[in-house]
């Protein structure tokens, strides 16, 4: 019996999930009859819709509604929860560490493939800043969004209860490093949430909260254009947010944020959103990389000079055929990633069938960004919007893009309910250590005289 053509998809994010979803549709007959097998490998059993992370952190959306279960949307694919540690494309083999291999103590397993779709995405780019590894908080996963929400609310509890003015000031100081989408939207949503929450604390006023945004360049939100970026700065400063442009974080050792302009802020909250870098798996392959560590790809989303290897999104350097400059490449953002994934899947299916490939070409439509409830900026198809219209466009756009009707309906219903009822301001920090109370009880039970 002939072996099925095996397509291995590394990564279950924007590119990985959408590519597998499109392959599942295009190769439906082959998948059902065993002529083709699609294997998706990702450390998590879900895809995270990252534009909704700020709203999840603020409590506007339930965290479980910003993730899409891979097994539910990819029933005809084989989903492997694990992490690729090396790829030997010359041998058509990927080395994968799974939960099962860790439990068994066997280390890794080799997965053989005929076609490789490498879409691991990116990871946070952490610079060697003193104290960052110890005290910094990331904002790239749903777990980090939940943890940050709990952390901010816990700081309000600390500030409300302490008699030490230094502890209170540090608890009420929130420093965000990075003026891109993640940093600005997270700060905007959490500032909005905290401003609402302090009405339930008798000894904390909104003016007591100190929010600081640190950006190394001379502007924030460059994707929405210079004019809208300046408006975003004015909007944030009007809400008592200290926006520091052309400023870097030099240190956060001992819970003190030391900035390049000489300022020092004792703080218990430092959120790091200053960029991303290619996933480490790319360096553990025998595939060609550019100077930034991304895969060199053709406009058809094939890895340059290599057969049977494909990539898109954050991991790939793809020529931008719509740009004026011949050396221009597509920006590594979600707008391109989703569209590239569909072309990539169509080309993989075409390659298996021996049909011609299609080049990827998409002119950037623009960007939208939220600055908190009812506030936003947008620059779409040459039109500039701000305030409520931009915020509304942000919600409509992302609601249309979040995968599956199930998630769209759940997110929409939560937005409607949040408009009718008051915000939830409960911290569930114990979720991060679910065994803590039982462990304490068990340890107490071991001591003599325990009741």
UniProtKB/TrEMBL annotation:
Pfam families documented for this protein: Pyr_redox_2 (PF07992)
Domain of life: Bacteria
Gene Ontology MF annotations: oxidoreductase activity
EC number(s) given by UniProt: 1.6.5.-
InterPro entries documented for this protein: FAD/NAD-bd_sf, FAD/NAD-binding_dom, NDH-2
Keywords for this protein: FAD, Flavoprotein, NAD, Oxidoreductase
Top enzyme category: oxidoreductase
Record domain FAD/NAD(P)-binding: where: 6-328
Record PANTHER family: NADH DEHYDROGENASE, NADH DEHYDROGENASE-LIKE PROTEIN RV1812C
Family: Belongs to the NADH dehydrogenase family.
Protein name: NAD(P)/FAD-dependent oxidoreductase
Organism this protein belongs to: Streptomyces asiaticus subsp. ignotus
């Amino acid at each position: 019996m002939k072996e099925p053509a095996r397509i291995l998809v590394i990564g279950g994010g924007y590119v990985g999930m959408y590519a597998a979803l499109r392959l599942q549709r295009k190769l439906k007959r082959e998948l059902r009859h065993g002529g083709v097998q699609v294997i998706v490998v990702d450390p998590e059993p879900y895809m995270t819709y990252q534009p909704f992370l700020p709203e999840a952190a603020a409590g506007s959306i339930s965290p479980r509604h910003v993730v899409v279960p891979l097994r539910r949307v990819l029933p005809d694919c084989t989903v492997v929860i694990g992490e690729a540690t090396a790829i030997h494309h010359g041998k058509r083999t990927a080395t994968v560490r799974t939960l099962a291999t860790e439990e068994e103590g066997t280390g890794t397993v080799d997965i053989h493939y005929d076609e490789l779709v490498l879409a691991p995405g990116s990871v946070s780019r952490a610079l060697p800043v003193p104290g960052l590894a110890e005290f910094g908080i990331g904002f790239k996963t749903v777990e980090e969004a939940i943890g940050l929400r709990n952390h901010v609310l816990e700081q309000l509890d600390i500030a409300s209860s302490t008699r030490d003015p230094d502890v209170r000031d540090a608890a009420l100081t929130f420093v965000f490093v990075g003026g891109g989408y993640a940093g600005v939207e997270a700060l905007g949503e959490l500032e909005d949430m905290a401003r609402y929450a302090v009405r339930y604390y008798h000894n904390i006023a909104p003016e007591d909260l100190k929010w600081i945004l640190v950006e190394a360049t001379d502007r924030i939100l460059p994707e929405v254009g210079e004019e809208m970026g300046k408006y975003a700065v004015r909007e944030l400063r009007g809400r008592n947010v200290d926006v520091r442009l052309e400023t870097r974080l030099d240190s956060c050792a001992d819970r003190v944020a030391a900035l390049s302009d000489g300022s020092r802020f004792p703080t218990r909250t430092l959120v790091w959103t200053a960029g991303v870098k290619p996933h480490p798996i790319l360096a553990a392959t025998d595939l060609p990389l550019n100077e930034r560590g991304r895969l060199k790809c053709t406009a058809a989303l094939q890895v340059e000079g290599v057969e049977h290897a494909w990539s898109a999104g954050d991991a790939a350097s793809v020529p931008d055929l719509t740009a004026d400059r011949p050396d221009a490449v597509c920006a590594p953002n979600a707008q391109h990633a989703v569209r590239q994934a569909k072309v990539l899947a169509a080309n993989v299916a075409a390659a298996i069938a021996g049909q011609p490939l299609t080049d990827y070409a998409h002119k950037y439509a623009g960007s939208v960004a939220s600055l908190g409830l009812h506030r936003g900026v947008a620059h779409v198809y040459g039109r500039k919007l701000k305030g409520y219209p931009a915020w509304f466009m942000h919600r409509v756009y992302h609601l249309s893009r979040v995968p599956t009707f199930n998630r769209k309906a759940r997110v929409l219903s939560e937005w409607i309910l949040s408009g009718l009822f008051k915000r939830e301001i409960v911290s569930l920090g114990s979720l991060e250590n679910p065994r803590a109370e039982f462990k304490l009880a068990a340890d107490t039970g071991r001591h003599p005289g325990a009741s």
